[in-house]
Specification:
Number of strands: 2
Strand order of the largest sheet: 1-2
CATH topology: Four Helix Bundle (Hemerythrin (Met), subunit A)
Distance between the termini: 78 Å
Order of helices and strands: HHHHEHHEHHH
Number of helices: 9
Number of domains: 1
CATH class: Mainly Alpha
Largest sheet: 2 strands, antiparallel
CATH architecture: Up-down Bundle
């Protein structure tokens, strides 16, 4: 009887572990689909596929934590899928869509994005702990990929109004690569205290976000992603100012005592 109970428990655990890995496979599938779409010249479709892959990436981690089915295998598989969906796919997309005219400079920028994304994932895996951290160190690779995808959608939506894309996109690619390997802190949104304390306000903001997104998807996706990227350096600057203010009185008191 005990043996049968153990077998049943193991089967349940295996079934639970399968679910997050299926979601990770969905992430990988849409990353690969983005690559195929880029090669076929369907850049908007490729950009949308990256966003869908990002949705699957968010779901697999949350499902694994909720069902308590996190594993080393799942973590490694997730990182490999992320490298394809948010490293190689956006790298190829940005090169063929905007950077190809620059030749070597263009493909080197795209390669730097992929390499920094891989380094970002490797650093995250090494530093990852069982405790949920409130902040990410460096720009998360799905956000960097989403920035590239939203830029493609924005330019295609307002192509008659926006000036030529090549120079701004080249600069953007280098900036995103640097931010991924930087030590700038970004909110992980894993702290649910604010949601618990102010559920009504959060619900209103979510509804507002959905309304704006439906009204102008390309513009809103670009703006929301850009705001998140800018919040990191702003937060780091404010923290540095606080540390500076604390250190200044200490130095002055030491000088007076001397």
């Amino acid at each position: 009887m005990k043996f049968k109970k153990r077998v049943k428990k193991n089967k349940k655990r295996k079934n639970i572990y399968i679910l997050p890995n299926i979601l990770t496979t969905g992430n990988l599938f849409f990353g690969f689909f983005s690559l195929i779409s880029t090669i076929n010249g369907k850049f908007s479709t490729a950009a949308i596929a990256i966003f869908i892959a990002a949705m699957f990436d968010q779901l697999d981690g949350r499902v694994a934590r909720l069902t308590k089915s996190t594993s080393c295998f799942g973590g490694e598989y997730d990182s490999l899928a992320d490298l394809v969906s948010f490293g190689i796919a956006p790298g190829i997309l940005i090169f063929l869509w905007a950077l190809k005219p620059y030749g070597r400079l263009g493909w080197l920028a795209a390669f730097l994005f992929v390499a920094c994304g891989a380094l970002r994932l490797a650093r995250f895996n090494v530093q990852a702990t069982n405790e949920q951290s409130k902040y990410f160190k460096g720009l998360p690779i799905p956000v960097a990929a989403s920035m590239i995808a939203s830029t493609v959608l924005l330019f295609n939506r307002f192509k008659d109004v926006i000036p030529p894309k090549q120079v701004p996109v080249l600069i953007l690619t280098y900036i995103l690569a640097f931010l991924m390997v930087s030590r700038i802190k970004y909110d992980s949104f894993k702290d649910w205290d604010t949601v618990k304390q102010k559920p009504f306000e959060v619900m209103v903001l979510v509804i507002l976000f959905i309304v704006l997104l439906v009204a102008e998807p390309a513009l809103m996706l670009f703006l929301f992603t850009l705001i998140y990227i800018l919040l990191g350096p702003v937060h780091s600057f404010l923290e540095w100012q606080k540390i500076k203010k604390v250190e200044k009185p200490e130095k002055e008191s030491e000088e007076v005592n001397y």
